[in-house]
Amino acid sequence: MDHGGGSGSGGGISADERRVGVALDFSPCSRLAVKWAVENMARHGDHLILVNVQSTSTVHYEEGETQLWEATGS
């Protein structure tokens, strides 16, 4: 997780622009992790970054896309 405050005048983000990342595999535990992050970690104006993590032996693009669509509506 990046708390901001990057140095220099480059691509750093300011202290009020935080990014909160959560790994998600659509399991009940990972869904609770997303809920927890929203309720306890993320603040108004933060960027919530969801990282879809799946085993390479079970990755099927169409299934993952369908799960994401059903979970988020987009």
From TrEMBL:
The lineage of its organism: Eukaryota, Viridiplantae, Streptophyta, Embryophyta, Tracheophyta. This is UspA domain-containing protein. It holds the Pfam family Usp. Residues 18-64 form the UspA domain. SUPFAM superfamilies: Adenine nucleotide alpha hydrolases-like. InterPro entries: Rossmann-like_a/b/a_fold, UspA.
